[in-house]
């Protein structure tokens, strides 16, 4: 079958959070054809280019979300079909189109300003449901206007939109924060709204783009899923949404010192909350990467009957060389691996290690990592080094030896630690000290290496570790130190927990289990979806209403063959048709139907 993979700031670009997972998914399912629809998030991301794509990737369409609305720059490349903003009437909307635009923007912005979607599908007075309905009506109305007339990006930056935002913010019933917005806030939110709705104006919604795929698979919620919403509305394409993190959560955690003011942050949070609820409502299936994400999805309207947890797959073979008894740095060594940033709370880890040293004077701590790409990473690393030097002065065995610090900051790739597996093998216990965490990848890697772990109870840590490691409260150096000491003093317990951790990781978190899950999900969703109807009104009238199960999903698997047109009188076996001719698998040729008179396979009977 033909899969439309939707990404935001990830695959096929060389950097991005979803890159590795998407690449494994695409390469692991070569029986399907993938079309990529990617939103880019920075000039640096586009400058680094794409990863090498496999041959069964068909078209690639990209669209920059970081440029100005009038900027035509885009990313090209092999197979590159570029997403551009559709042009059209723009400022010259007729009276009827202007009225449509104003009504749809008023509905969408009114729902956002009311902020009623925060309390789930319904509250006592039903306001949340009303806000969700208004938001959905405005969103889809704007999408239809953009597809028919173009020029939506220009209209959204107009004075008319600013006045609608101002009126909605001042309307009775808005929250105190939104009600306090001023003119600069109206302008800032209008700019951000245009950027957030820019996917509505792309030229992806045609019979050669999203209209040609059998299934849309959004690699994250939010902006990535927005084209999938429109593909479902315009063409009836089923939507699958996978979330390994919670995009909505990042909007709630936006830094108070951000450039935008509190009213703008509140409005954007309301917008993304309502968008997430609409995506969850329209998705045929939602696959969170862990239960922590699942709870967020259910909180904002996802139906439990359409949620299936699928853990992200990780490569286990790269850690196969690490044995359960292989302590390269000694059993008294603690290892920490990750990006060095405030959310990892290395300050608490260093204070905890001071307590560990009092109980175990020979203990050592090896920190493997690099500053995060955010600007604060370097400053935080400098702060951690200074604290380590203050807490642990260089020590020497005697008066003639050179002093040595029990805490080291290292990078993977040197002669002592050439790869990631060697880093995990450098100690007996792996520590995670985060205060914020989604799916803890470093813990899974430590489990593949049969390492006992000590972790803070954040994100999906408890779900991942199960009973194979020790878990303590975050921001509690004393508890972290006590757990580390307990494992350092008990080698048999370390070995037992490490073996159990490896068994659990191999059962739940491998690439193979992830691919098996999505292989079945793809077939199930396409098999239960109604037959697609033609995009044009003329073809739709000739074909009649869509017929459920018009073509079995297995017919899409072999050679990515196109379906036979309804009413076709002749078919050609796979491998014998000339270029451009419609083909079906050889096993489907000549199948007889039980209806009166008989018909060819693929004629569309339910």
Total strand segments? 12
Average pLDDT, rounded to a whole number, is 82
Query: Structural class, judged by helices and strands?
Result: alpha/beta
Taking all Cα atoms into account, the compactness measure Rg is 28 Å
Tally of helical segments:
21
Low-confidence stretches: 71-90, 116-126, 558-606
Helix amount: 25-40%
N-end to C-end Cα span: 19 Å
Strand content: 5-15%
- CA-based shape: globular
Could you give a short account of the major beta sheet? 6 strands, parallel
Write out the strand line-up for the largest beta sheet, numbering strands in chain order. 3-2-1-4-5-6
What does this protein structure show overall?
It is a single chain. With 606 residues, the chain is of the alpha/beta class. Helix content is 40%, strand content 11%. The chain contains 21 helices and 12 strands. It has helices at residues 19-28, 43-48, 95-114, 127-149, 152-156, 159-169, 176-179, 183-196, 226-235, 247-252, 262-282, 291-299, 346-359, 376-391, 420-424, 441-448, 461-465, 477-488, 491-508, 511-528, 537-543, and strands at 2-8, 33-40, 57-64, 215-218, 239-243, 285-288, 333-340, 364-371, 407-410, 429-432, 452-456, 470-472. The protein has a 6-stranded parallel sheet. α4 packs across α11. The chain is globular and about 80 Å long. Mean pLDDT is 82; it is low at 71-90, 116-126 and 558-606.
């Amino acid at each position: 079958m033909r899969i439309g993979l939707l990404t935001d700031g990830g695959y096929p670009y060389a950097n991005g959070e979803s890159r590795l997972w998407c690449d494994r998914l695409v390469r692991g399912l070569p029986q399907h054809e993938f079309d990529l629809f990617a939103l880019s998030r920075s000039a640096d991301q586009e400058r680094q280019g794409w990863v090498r794509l496999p041959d069964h990737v068909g078209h690639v369409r990209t669209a920059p979300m970081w440029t100005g609305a009038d900027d035509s720059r885009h990313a090209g490349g092999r197979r590159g079909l570029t997403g551009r903003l559709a042009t059209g009437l723009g400022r010259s909307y007729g009276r009827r189109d202007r009225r449509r635009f104003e009504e749809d923007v008023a509905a969408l912005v009114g729902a956002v300003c009311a902020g009623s979607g925060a309390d789930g599908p319904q509250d006592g007075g039903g306001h949340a449901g009303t806000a969700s309905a208004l938001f959905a009506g405005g969103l889809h109305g704007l999408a239809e206007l953009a597809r028919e007339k173009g020029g939506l990006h220009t209209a959204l930056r107009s004075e008319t939109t600013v006045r609608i935002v101002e009126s909605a913010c001042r309307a009775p019933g808005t929250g105190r924060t939104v009600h306090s917005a001023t003119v600069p806030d109206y302008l800032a939110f209008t700019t951000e709204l245009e950027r957030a709705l820019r996917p509505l104006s792309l030229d992806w919604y045609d019979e050669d783009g999203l209209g040609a795929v059998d299934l849309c698979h959004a690699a994250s919620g939010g902006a990535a899923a927005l084209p999938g919403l429109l593909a479902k509305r315009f063409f009836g394409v089923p939507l699958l949404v996978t979330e390994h993190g919670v995009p909505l959560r990042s909007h709630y955690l936006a830094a108070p010192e951000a450039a935008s003011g509190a009213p703008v942050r509140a409005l954007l949070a309301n917008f993304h909350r309502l968008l997430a609820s609409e995506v969850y409502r329209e998705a045929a299936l939602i696959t969170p990467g862990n239960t922590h994400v699942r709870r967020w999805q259910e909180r904002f309207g996802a139906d439990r009957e359409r949620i299936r947890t699928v853990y992200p797959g990780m490569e286990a073979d790269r850690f196969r060389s690490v044995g359960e008894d292989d302590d390269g740095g000694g059993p008294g060594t603690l290892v920490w691996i990750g990006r060095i940033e405030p959310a990892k709370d290395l300050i608490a880890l260093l204070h905890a290690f001071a307590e560990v040293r009092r109980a175990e004077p020979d203990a050592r701590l090896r920190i493997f990592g690099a500053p995060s790409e955010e600007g604060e990473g370097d400053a935080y690393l400098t702060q951690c080094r200074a604290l380590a030097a203050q807490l642990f002065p260089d020590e020497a065995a005697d008066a003639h030896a050179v002093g040595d610090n029990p805490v080291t900051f290292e990078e993977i790739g040197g002669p002592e630690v050439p790869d990631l597996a060697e880093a995990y093998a450098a100690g007996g216990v792996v520590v995670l000290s985060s205060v914020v965490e989604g799916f803890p990848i470093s813990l899974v890697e430590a489990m593949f290496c049969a390492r006992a772990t000590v972790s803070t109870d954040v994100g999906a840590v408890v779900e991942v570790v199960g009973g194979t490691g020790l878990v303590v409260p975050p921001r509690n150096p004393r508890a972290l130190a006590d757990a580390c000491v307990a494992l350092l003093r008990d080698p048999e317990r370390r070995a037992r927990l490490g073996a159990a951790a490896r068994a659990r990781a191999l059962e739940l978190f491998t690439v193979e289990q992830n691919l098996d899950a999505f292989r079945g999900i793809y077939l199930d969703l396409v098999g239960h979806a109604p037959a697609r109807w033609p995009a044009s009104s003329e073809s739709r009238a000739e074909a009649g209403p869509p017929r459920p199960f018009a073509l079995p999903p297995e017919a899409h698997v072999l050679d990515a063959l196109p379906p036979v047109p309804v009413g076709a009188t002749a078919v050609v076996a796979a491998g014998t048709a000339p270029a451009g001719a419609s083909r079906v698998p050889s096993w489907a040729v000549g199948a007889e139907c039980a209806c009166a008179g008989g018909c060819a396979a693929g004629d569309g009977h339910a």
